[in-house]
Amino acid sequence: MSIDPTGRRESRDFGEAVVFDRRFPEPIEDVWASITDSDRLERWVGVWEGDPASGGVVFRMTAEGDDVALEAVTIHECVPPRLLRMRIGGNDGDSGQFELTLVESNGVTTLTFAQSARSDHPIADVAPGWEYYLDRLVADHDGADVASVDFDDYYPSMCEHYRAMFA
Question: Considering the entire predicted model, what is its pTM?
Answer without folding.
Answer: 0.93
